[in-house]
Amino acid sequence: MPKNKGKGGKNRRRGKNENEAEKRELIFKEDGQEYAQVTKMLGNGRLEAMCFDGIKRLCHIRGKLRKKVWINQGDIILVGLRDYQDAKADVILKYNADEARNLKTYGEIPDSVKVTDTVNFVDDGLDDDIEFGDDSGSGEDDDINDI
């Protein structure tokens, strides 16, 4: 068996996510930037987002955010628009739920946008009317002891 000469394994490289609890200053959009809500995750560092100017764009997650900031469907993000491609954009920043609510109160994003901590893909209350009846079965299991 070879000796371990490293300083640790995979978990050491990952590190700790210590910046989660810190309050950061709310960053507003500048010219050439737009707020958007993630509609679909495409994989390979890309996603589809509905920008609040009414255009659906294909967005690329920049390297600083990849594998560090996890973006999910329904999140509010800040995207940088491209001068040469209007249908594509780059993700600059992900807002957490509190920051998104603050943007809503400041009037930066429309009031119709739903900001939640968790994403509900299925509306609640759809399975309230489902009832399971007693199924006594065909009685085949009862015959085992008769042998």
Structural summary, described in words:
The relative contact order is 0.14. Strand 2 (46-51) and strand 3 (56-61) form a beta hairpin. The protein has two helices and five strands. With 147 residues, it is α+β, with helices and mostly antiparallel strands. It is 10% helix and 25% strand.
* Count of alpha and pi helical runs: 2
Low-confidence stretches at least 5 residues in length (pLDDT < 50)? 119-123
Rg over C-alpha atoms, rounded to the nearest angstrom: 24 Å
The overall pLDDT, averaged over residues, is 80
Q: Which class best fits the helix and strand makeup?
A: alpha+beta
Spatial order of strands in the largest sheet = 1-2-3-5-4
Give the quaternary arrangement of the chains: single chain
Helical coverage, percent range: 10-25%
* Major sheet size, sense and barrel closure: 5 strands, mixed, barrel
Give the distance, in angstroms, between the N- and C-terminal Cα atoms.
58 Å
Q: Care to count the β-strands? A: 5
- Reading the helices and strands in chain order gives HEEEEEH
The rough form would be described as: extended
Instruction: State which percent range the strand residues make up.
Output: 25-35%
